[in-house]
Amino acid sequence: MSMMWFIVLVAAATVAAQPKAGCPTTCGDLHIPYPFGTTQGCYKDEDFFINCDTSSAKPIANYSTTTIQVLDISLHGQLRLAGWLSWDCYNSNADHSWSFFWIRLGQFAISNTNNKFVVVGCDTYAFIDDFWGRRFTTGCTSICKSLDDVINATCSGIGCCYSSFPKGNMGYNVTLKSYNNHSQVLDFNPCSYGFVVEDGAYTFSSLDLINLRQRNDFPVVIDWGIGDENCSQATKNTTTYACMDNTVCVDSESAPGYFCTCKDGFQGNPYLSGSDGCQDIDECSNRTSNLCSQTCHNLYGTYTCSCLPGYKGNGFKNETGCVLEDKSNGFPVMQVALGITVSLLLLGIFISSLCWVQRKRKLIIIKKKFFEQNGGMLLQEQLSERIGYNDMAKLFSEEELKAATDNFHESKILGRGGQGTVYKGTLPDKRVVAIKKSRIADQNQVKDFINEVLLLSRINHRNVVKLLGCCLETEVPLLVYEYIPNNTLLHHIDPSMKLSCLPWKTRLRIAAETAGAISYLHSAASIPIIHRDIKSSNILLDHNYIAKVSDFGASRLVPLDQTQITTLVQGTLGYLDPEYLQTSQLTEKSDVYSFGVVLLELLTGKKVVEVNRPEEDRNLAMYFVSSMKKDRLFEVLDSRVVDEKNVGQLREVAILASRCIRVKGEERPTMKEVSMELEGLIAKEKHPWDGKNTNSEENEHLLGQIYGTGSGSTSNSMGFESMRNQVTFEMESGR
């Protein structure tokens, strides 16, 4: 059984008007202010029609011609509607039923600041896109194996996850997917759920995994506005301008058009004229509405204060107030007043000095607390015990880094990411550095964090961004790296950036340098390091286009007696190893897969996830493998780098990339093997071979080695289908 719920609301023309007399202003318990209304002539236009259903004992207000209940209407440009739930269910008989919801608004918009897209399920991935599927797509994944894994009131991806979406959405469409048709969690979670809900209105419970379809309390906040012009445009047309006397025009937050509010000192309906419109507030009628010490005088739109006879001052409590006049003779009033003033001034200076000293002591205590909390004592102990660390892992003070970044000014921000914010700074010795505000997710990991800092500080590889030191005096640790000035590899190969094309020779060298750096981390470092987030945006380029691998915030150290470690799945969609995604077992082959995707970017110049390609080809790895199977390699290569001289070299790199992105990690090469192959291709340029002597049979043989013929094809075909089933999100960019 399947259902697709949809709502289409059509915008109407905006005409300045006033409601007729005697219009109903309530429907049940709901107050309905103009420009909204329930009967003809009582609402501004069709966008503001509220259908009051009186068929039941308690009247229900529905929006326009739909059955969507209106919960609240605010004259400040928002209304709350009863939300809608999409679901996708399975049973033990393998029956499948679903109900997906989509909505398209004509004039109003789904508020992006007051709503979240929430997904509930233990075998679920879901996404939400705009109604037309062209402007945005986002979503999240929710996985769990038992109810014991679930944490109530938390949507962190275990049973429940959530995602934000951009502003200006006139509609949306929800799609739900399952990895295994809920077969492994059917006894406690037969369904996947997805819905847009007001931020803070929904609290996740493990009971929701069993049956959420019985609940209907999912309020959604809608931004509304008058017409489709902003305030500066609307005020020019007095015949359609909706704001009446004593009002202020405000541009709608995300919907087209504007809304009106009363000026300070006035209250009422800003869309109505006369006594129902914005009228003067008599602040003097209520002592809590004014700041007068003695006498209040109401004025149009404001008020003023005065003092009774025998008192002086302006009458305002927050200013001079009212002070009894001194009429005594011969008493040195001025001298006494001056003495009191000086005494109070000296007392104030003394108290301020004490407060300053106290604040200074408190700041020192806080810094010491953060230093110990972030592992500072452990780091100092390690530095004192190990020869060779003192010159490598420097402990910076918070003041040094504040001075280097102009107190972490926004103009110094180089970028933001899931692992923190990166600032550009200049040290006193004129060195330009990148300073990253990172975080430790778990205080139990402090020792691992300190060991990682010590290890990374000793890495001295020309293709790895150098860690210069850290600051542990702040609430979150600050890491100081060398500054790489020429942006990221992604910035230079993305066609949308419209930069000059990197030639193939440079791309191949960058690939070889990156592979060498990852190989060094895997095998040459004192303790193997798995980067876990290899992607083109984490490969920096200096002025000479020398590659520098960066961002070790997601990296993990591998004990020498282990080949894999179990972690919470982390990485970037499109680059994420499908085997790691399914098993949570992190190995060095996970980095090999991610590097293979980077090779595909260098070969094709295409985005890792591209919504304009057919659904089965949106993931670049799947698209490339499919093209290789169909012998269409040169159709997907970047035409800007293909020429007769490098055809053979491009083919060999394509074959290497295909090996790297095999679904089974054991079938992928090691990074050392990848590095040696790329270095070999570069060395081969000294003895040119452009593939002119390679006939079509040899080409087929080369491709056959990747995809197999005869008995060798089964494993690879299955791997290709497995890759097709991995998580694929539709996004504007896969990076």
UniProtKB/TrEMBL annotation:
GO terms for molecular function: ATP binding; calcium ion binding; polysaccharide binding; protein serine/threonine kinase activity. GO terms for biological process: cell surface receptor signaling pathway. One of its GO terms (cellular component) is plasma membrane. Residues 280-317 form the EGF-like domain. It is found in: Membrane. The keyword rRNA-binding does not apply. Residues 408-690 form the Protein kinase domain. Residues 1-17 form the signal peptide. The chain crosses the membrane at residues 336-357. It catalyses: L-seryl-[protein] + ATP = O-phospho-L-seryl-[protein] + ADP + H(+); L-threonyl-[protein] + ATP = O-phospho-L-threonyl-[protein] + ADP + H(+). PROSITE patterns: ASX_HYDROXYL, EGF_3, EGF_CA, PROTEIN_KINASE_DOM, PROTEIN_KINASE_ST. It is a single-pass type I membrane protein. Keywords: ATP-binding, Disulfide bond, EGF-like domain, Glycoprotein, Kinase, Membrane, Nucleotide-binding, Phosphoprotein, Receptor, Repeat, Serine/threonine-protein kinase, Signal, Transferase, Transmembrane, Transmembrane helix. SMART domains: EGF, EGF_CA, S_TKc. CDD domains: EGF_CA, STKc_IRAK. Serine/threonine-protein kinase that may function as a signaling receptor of extracellular matrix component. Binding to pectin may have significance in the control of cell expansion, morphogenesis and development. This is Putative wall-associated receptor kinase-like 16.
